[in-house]
Amino acid sequence: MEWDCTSQILRPETVDLAAGYEYVSVFTTPITASMLDRFKEIGVKMIGTRCIGFDHIDLVHAKEIGMVVTNITYDSDGVAEFNVMEILMAVRRIKEVMKKSMGNDFRLNCLLSRQLKDLSVGVMGAGKIGLAVLKDLSGFGCKLYYCNRRRKEEADKYAEYVSTEELIRTCDVISLNMELNDETHHILDAEAFSKMKDDVVIVNTGRGALIDSQALIDALNSGKVSCAALDVVENELGLTYNDCRDKDLTGQYIDIFRNMPNVIYTQHMAFYYHRAVSDMVYNCLLSMKMHNEGKEIPHRLA
Questions:
Q1: Which residues contact 61 (CB under 8 A, 6 or more apart)?
Q2: Among 263, 295, 267, which residue's Cα sits nearest to residue 93?
Q3: 262: closest CA among 208, 213, 219, 220?
Q4: From the centroid of its chain, how far is CA 175?
Q5: pLDDT tens for residues 63-97?
Q6: CB atoms closer than 10 angstroms to residue 160
Q7: What percent of the chain has pLDDT over 70?
Q8: Average pLDDT, the chain
Q9: Would you name the residues annotated as active-site residues?
Q10: What pTM was computed for the model?
Q11: Could you tell me if 82 and 206 are in contact, meaning their C-beta atoms sit under 8 angstroms apart?
């Protein structure tokens, strides 16, 4: 394969940099209908996004104009490890611990925490990552539950299958590991938070819009949610993976959450480890190769 790359961010005025190329590899930058039209005009046959999520691409329009779009898969174990780490950090109140220690306050006042073994953990979504999270958590001795579109034999080895409503109502820790679509958008909203146990812990390494951010802020402020660990946040596109040191982020959800004492925020990086990044690049290029050879494309979206 002959390839080239650019450090310029994909936006409407940079689309023409792809002129002369048949395939384009992107990450999480938004691709609108007009951008898809222009890609097609200049001869691009396929757009491959190097991530599992695809809500940044107008797939409806891509299908209408016949533009091939693919995503990828990658090793899920590292994401699951990160997810479990965030659960442990939230349960043991690590952000508050670190803040006090950095200020030379080594008292244990207000830092009493819970033990994961004594808690019930609910995993929402039993795909590859959700299954890996359940498997990792099974070694801690906590009671595990999961909800999913359908029951899964593999998940049943580690957890009890319950409805979404029952999981929300009964679990001490709720981990979001599902894809974002019309059904799951704001699946945790004000009504859902009102049904949860007091002092519940919320962990999200899926997609930011799975949670109604304002509803979560209200639940954190009221004490309904004791802590949240968020690797993804609503409206993060254009911020994450960019140098924003000269930007005023006041009012952005990222800024609100990172300044809350009971929120752990990481910049959408659960996937960022050697094996996963290698898989992302390889599988994106593999789809291009398969398309070029007229073979069935893995992970085809449009």
A1: 33, 36, 37
A2: 263
A3: 220
A4: 11
A5: 999 999 999 999 999 999 999 999 999 999 999 99
A6: 14
A7: 100
A8: 96
A9: 207, 236, 268
A10: 0.91
A11: no
Q: At 107, which amino acid appears?
A: R
- Of 136, 147, 137, 139, residue with least CA distance to 169: 147
- Residue 4's Cβ-side half-sphere holds a number of Cα atoms within 13 Å equal to 8
State how far the alpha carbon of 61 is from the alpha carbons of 41, 98, 99, 122, 233, in Å.
Answer: 14, 47, 47, 36, 26
**Domains of the chain: residue spans and CATH:** 12-74+274-292 (3.40.50.720), 77-265 (3.40.50.720)
Span 254-271, pLDDT tens digits: 999 999 999 999 999 999
